[in-house]
Write a structure and sequence with these properties.
With 176 residues, the protein is an all-alpha fold. It is rod-shaped, with a radius of gyration of 59 Å. The chain has 6 helices and no strands. Among the domains are: 33 residues; 48 residues, no CATH class.
Length: 176
């Protein structure tokens, strides 16, 4: 780059300047060249800064857009949740805790009584003679079988005959 900058330096100043001023003019030329190089570097840095700032602005814009969109979506959902929470809280406040505890106490007393009854029934079942119970069940089976073999028509006829016999006796004693 230094060669291109030397091309920019006017040739007339070098040719017309006296020879004693040449070392000073070289210093000035070097100084001007350094200033020019520095300004070029600063321009490059400024361009980089501008590109970075544009990228930052784009990223910040995207983040802001995401925040606004999420707020637009989440705020109604949060409001719905708050509304449901209020309804639930109202329902919970309407519950009569004293009545529930009283009912639970009554239920506990009933359960205790039921357990006592079950315990007594178990005691009775333990004391029960299973052999005599089985024998009684066998006798009941025999009775049911003999009762099922009974002729219903004959029984109905016998009942009608009994009614026919008892009716005149009832009239005789004055009952209708």
């Amino acid at each position: 780059m230094e060669e291109t900058h030397t091309d920019l330096v006017p040739e007339q100043t070098q040719a017309t300047a006296p020879e004693t001023a040449q070392p000073e003019s070289f210093e000035v030329i070097d100084y001007v060249r350094e200033l020019f190089l520095n300004s070029e570097e600063q321009k490059k840095l400024e361009r980089k800064k501008i590109r970075l700032m544009r990228v930052c602005v784009a990223l910040i814009s995207v983040v802001a857009l995401v925040v606004v969109a999420s707020a637009a979506i989440l705020v109604p959902m949060l409001m719905n949740t708050v509304s449901q929470a209020n309804q639930t809280l109202t329902t919970v406040q309407q519950i009569d805790i004293k009545a529930i505890t009283t009912n639970i106490d009554e239920l506990a007393v009933q359960a205790n009584d039921t357990f006592k009854s079950v315990g007594e029934a178990v005691t009775v079942l333990d004391a029960l003679d299973m052999e005599s119970l089985n024998a009684t069940i066998a006798e009941l089976k025999t009775g049911v079988e003999s009762f099922s073999q009974l002729d219903i028509e004959t029984l109905n006829t016998a009942i009608e005959n009994l009614n026919a016999t008892v009716e005149p006796l009832a009239r005789l004693f004055g009952k209708k």
